[in-house]
Write a structure and sequence with these properties.
Layout lengths: L2 E5 L3 H13 L3 E5 L2 H10 L4 E4 L8 H10 L7 E6 L4 H9 L4 E4 L4 H10 L7
Parallel strand pairs: 1-2, 1-3, 3-4, 4-5
């Protein structure tokens, strides 16, 4: 079973994402900020990361840049999930190592579609 780390400072968003991802047969772990997520990844690298941008302690971009430098940090498929919809923000996320981008609010259809695009799930 593939593991997905959901990184978001909102407990509600993490809960919604968990439900969607478990329905897609992922084992789900959670982190409330980038620092917590980085510590998790250094101990147990997930297959995928659903990553929020704006968080306290360490934001998504800083987490992603550090993750990609760490041993094995090139492996997880990272899907940014945020309200940032400016083209320059999307470009910054991709340049920093994100594989795909989802806008909030999201639903199971959007998550499944994006995860299929990056090869994490079989298209519906």
């Amino acid at each position: 079973m593939k593991t997905c780390l959901v990184v978001d400072d909102s407990r509600v968003i993490r809960k919604v994402a968990r439900r969607i991802l478990e329905d897609l047969s992922f084992h789900v772990e959670e982190a409330g900020d980038g620092s917590e997520a980085l510590n998790f990844c250094r101990g147990n690298m997930p297959d995928a990361i659903l990553l929020d941008w704006n968080m306290p302690v360490m934001n998504g971009i800083d987490f992603l840049r550090q993750l990609r430098k760490d041993p094995g940090g090139d492996r997880p498929v990272v899907v940014f999930c945020t309200t940032e919809n400016d083209i320059s923000a999307i470009a910054q996320a991709i340049e920093s190592g994100a594989n795909e981008y989802i806008m909030k609010p999201f639903d199971s259809e959007i998550v499944q579609s994006k995860f299929a695009e990056v090869g994490l799930v079989v298209p519906a």
